[in-house]
Amino acid sequence: MIRAVLFDLDGTLADTAADLGYALNVQLQRHGRQALPMELIRRHASAGTPGLIKLGFNSGPQDHNFAALRSEYMRLYEDNLCRQTTLFPGIAELLDTLEERRLIWGIVTNKPQRFTVPLVKQLGIFERAGCVVSGDSVPRPKPHPDSLCQAAKELAIEPEQALYVGDDERDMQAATAAGMPKIIAGYGYLSDGSHPENWGAPIINYPAQVLNFL
After folding, report:
1. Looking at 53, 79, 105, which one is the last position of a domain?
2. Greatest pairwise CA separation for the chain in angstroms
3. Which of 79, 100, 127 is the last residue before a domain boundary?
4. Are the beta carbons of 184 and 204 closer than 8 angstroms?
5. Quick one: which of 4, 62, 128, 130 could link to 162 by a disulfide (CB 3.0–4.6 Å)?
6. Which helix (H) or strand (E) holds 165?
7. Whole domain around residue 42: which residue ranges?
8. So which residues are the catalytic ones?
9. Which residues have a Cβ under 8 Å from the Cβ of 156 and sit 6 or more positions away?
10. Over the stretch 33-50, which tens digit does the pLDDT of each residue have?
């Protein structure tokens, strides 16, 4: 029996791509590079800061300039955390319905806590969430199951009693490892070349469809 619904944040609960992209384009222009189209950035938003740095600068964790670029990007994003970010259409109504049905809901994200908490507060839903677990709240972020297991522990339920909704393959891998039912937010930031039909979970096209799995 499902007692709780857990959501990924970026690309599932909140549409954060515009602000993630704004910070990246400011950084690119600081380095004398051209800004990238927002639609391109949107398709890479679920890859987090490493993915965006790779997109903008073709730099990865193995490269000598990655750490400095990452720190610079994170400062820029922190200064522009909620310029245009909103809940996805239909999410507010879904959360209302879950609460009316006395189901707990929470957030499990790889986003660092320094961004997650202020962002969720600015969206006006922090106090309503049963739990908010960030990527640096646990030893190993997704695709490891640690954060989902931590959320279940905080909600005093078993992992199999929660449904996880996410838009990235790592979300599905983490849920599988935790023994947690899962669905794919097909309305989210599916990246170029991704094949969600191979991720081993049903795909929904809008938030209200979550209710079909409860």
Report:
1. 79
2. 54
3. 79
4. yes
5. 4
6. strand 162-166
7. 17-79
8. 8, 10
9. none
10. 999 999 999 999 988 899
